[in-house]
Design goal:
A nine-stranded mixed sheet has the order 9-10-8-7-6-5-4-1-11, with helices on both faces. The chain has a three-stranded antiparallel sheet with strand order 12-13-14, with no helix packed on it. The chain has a three-stranded antiparallel sheet with strand order 15-17-16. It is built from 15 helices and 17 strands. Helices cover 37% and strands 22% of the residues.
């Protein structure tokens, strides 16, 4: 039986962070000011939340009715936005709809992104009871000046408190999201953040270099010369320090921006990097099933239409052979194991280097410089090669 991942987009935030380019809206209790652990948690407008979750449930039922092959959902990922703003019973409704529409696997990974300013022990206990078993906490930094600059609603102590509350609520799979390469961020600030994160002993860490996205406050400020990013040398020093420290602490650096204690790799995100099927529901969510990609329009989740797949979507594209092999190679190179040439041949019916015979000479310099390595089965980036990964990946698409 095929396994399917389901991504559920929750497009609500207390306020947009200065760097965030994801689709989201602010529909919250206006009395919330942020970064005060003693105040009540922010809440969504009940009507807005119920209408949105109703739409998610209808969309899942539609997909379930039109599904033509036996599948089980083995990973669910609540992303956003700020999914932890929803009520635990809303998460429970979505999981029940997934089970009704497709069937949940016996041991599913159910992840939820969370903002430390929107959770406490009681709410996390309820999320755990609802079925969420993996929590990703958007810490970003343990430096309050950095947090203020990027527009987060929490402070460093709240982030640590959120982590402890997650453990007390019964979560035994907790990830911390961290960010580096932030305007004016120093190496010592990043070093302190990483070491404080390590002291908490999380099971997984995601660590991303800030990218300036269009239609964000940072984009406008960057174009006007009001902020500047760390130079490439400092950015790469930050990245490799993180890689070295996590290895020292027993983490498996399994993907360019992800490290986990053995057995705690994010099963859902691995689907994205291994050409597996996943269904996205919710405003702006993207899907990839049977070689077709589509993206939902922001308003489509509220529709009553029974149209299948992405006839209403912003984008709908059926991959051809070159699309498939290019995407496979591009995403596989994000993983530490790299491109599995045996798996490539089994999937596509052709040997890897037969397909990319014209590309191989262009890669010679990367091999000579120790940026790419190959054995009988795998082609992979070295750690030094990660610094020019986009350049190398582009050769395959």
């Amino acid at each position: 039986m095929d396994k399917l991942g389901v991504y559920v987009h929750i497009p609500f935030c207390v306020r947009r962070c200065n760097y965030c380019g994801f689709y989201s809206n602010s529909i919250v209790d206006t009395g919330f000011s942020g970064a005060k652990s003693s105040q009540p948690l922010p809440t969504l407008s009940p009507d807005a939340e119920e209408a949105y979750i109703d739409g998610i449930v209808r969309k899942l039922a539609m997909y379930g009715r039109h599904n033509k092959k036996p599948v089980k959902v083995d990973t669910v990922y609540f992303g956003g936005g700020t999914p932890s703003l929803i009520r635990p019973d809303s998460a429970e409704r979505v999981l029940a709809a997934i089970d009704d529409s497709f069937g949940l696997d016996d041991d599913p990974e159910i992840s939820m992104e969370s903002n430390p300013g929107t959770i406490d022990r009681a709410k996390l206990t309820a999320f755990r009871k609802a079925g969420v078993n993996r929590l990703s906490i958007g810490v970003q930094s343990f430096d309050n000046d950095v947090l203020k600059l990027i527009g987060r609603i929490h402070d460093a102590d709240q982030a640590e408190e959120a982590y402890m509350s997650a453990r007390e609520a019964g979560f035994d799979n907790v990830s911390l999201d961290l960010m580096f390469g932030i305007p004016d961020q120093t190496f010592s600030q990043w070093e302190e953040t990483l070491n404080r994160a390590m002291d908490l002993k999380p099971d997984h860490i995601s660590f991303y270099s800030l990218q300036i996205e269009e239609n964000t406050p940072f984009y406008s400020e960057y174009k006007e010369g009001l902020i500047s990013l760390p130079d490439v040398k400092l950015d790469r020093r930050m990245y490799h320090y993180a890689c070295d420290l996590m290895r020292e602490k027993g983490f498996h650096h399994y993907e360019i921006s992800s490290a986990a204690k053995p057995g705690y790799e994010c099963r859902h995100n691995i689907k994205y990097w291994t050409f597996a099927d996943y269904l996205g529901v919710g405003a702006s969510a993207s899907s990839f099933i049977d070689g077709a990609r589509w993206t939902e329009k922001p308003g489509d989740v509220f529709a009553d239409s029974d149209k299948w797949q992405a006839e209403q979507g912003e984008e709908y594209h059926v991959n051809d052979f070159l699309d498939n092999v290019g995407e496979y190679a591009f995403t596989a190179l994000r993983m530490d194991r790299g491109i599995d040439k045996d798996d490539f041949e089994a999937r596509f019916g052709r040997k890897f280097w037969d397909v990319y015979s014209e590309v191989k000479p262009e890669l010679a310099g990367y091999f000579d410089d120790g940026l790419l390595t190959e054995d009988d089965r795998f082609l992979r980036l070295t750690e030094a090669g990660i610094d020019v990964s986009n350049e190398i990946m582009a050769e395959f698409v």
